[in-house]
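Notebook p. 47: complex prediction with MTE.
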Amino acid sequence: MLIGKSKKIPSSEMTPENVYINRREFIGKSAAIGASTSLGWRSSDFGGLRERRFLQKDWSKVRSELDEELTPFGDVTSYNNFYEFGTGKSDPARNSHSLKPRPWTIEVGGLCDNPGTYDLADFIKPGKIEDRVYRMRCVEAWSMVIPWQGFSLKNVIDRAKPSGSARFVEFQTLNDVEQMPGQRYGVLRWPYIEGLRLDEAQHPLTMLVTGVYGTTLPNQNGAPIRLIVPWKYGFKGIKSIVSMRFLEQMPTNTWKRSASQEYGFYANVNPDVPHPRWSQARERRIGEFRRRPTLMFNGYADEVASLYSGMDLRIHY
Ligand code: MTE
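Predicted complex, structure tokens below:
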């Protein structure tokens, strides 16, 4: 996502080194799977969910159905896009300590019969937390394979009971410059906004995520709750969600608003539609050197292609 650079966040606002999740430390510890240590996160009650211990499972043996290697935890948590903490890939891990993911409330509103403001624990209640390994493809042509914990967004949509006229869902990220220092800079219009068509949002693959690699979602990955839509470019995966609204009209998502000639609403992974400044035909899996072909709908075509039948995906990119 390249539309200019914000100023660097001053070092006085950065994480002390001992808090920063150190990749080397992780790799060293993960070699000792079965040991009782974690990365120093406290086991705590997370919104009614017991925080699951990091080394509870031998993640190195977990594969997606496509038998792909998982992207190491150190890469998943240190190579991020989260512009509220800076535009560099390492900025979110370095700067997101100021985000306070608990207590957290989420507002559900717009065109629905059952609106409400929920504490996180109540918000996630209708969903049963499960492990799902998803491919994630960024519009910048890199990709990862990540074991998330969460549940289908459909569960909270069903509880909200959208009315007949609702056709879209809009999501917003927290808007608080004290917690998100990058919001001082006008690199994007804040708060970050994303949206899905209602049928996309109700698709069973569309996931609200509360954890990764069996541990509570780190701030840099969008704590305490974020969206993952695996057949779309990563920018649809809005982080640190504070509201969702049901709408009749298509919402204007942040990246479309910032550069509509480059980023559309649908954002389906499509190797045949190049970004105006680069090809989308290939991608680099983080941790690998060679570039691999990008798959239509990021490899989820069997599950989701029918959502777009009759649409020209070159126009609706
Ligand atoms: N959500 C917010 N609020 N702010 C952001 O800058 N970046 C998006 C998405 N969600 C972003 C966001 C982009 S461009 C990507 S590729 C993914 O988050 C990256 O998710 P990850 O850092 O967990 O891999």
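Notes: The mean pLDDT is 85. The helical segments are 23-30, 73-76, 91-95, 120-123, 154-160, 198-201, 254-258, 301-304.
Next step: compare against the earlier run before touching the bench.
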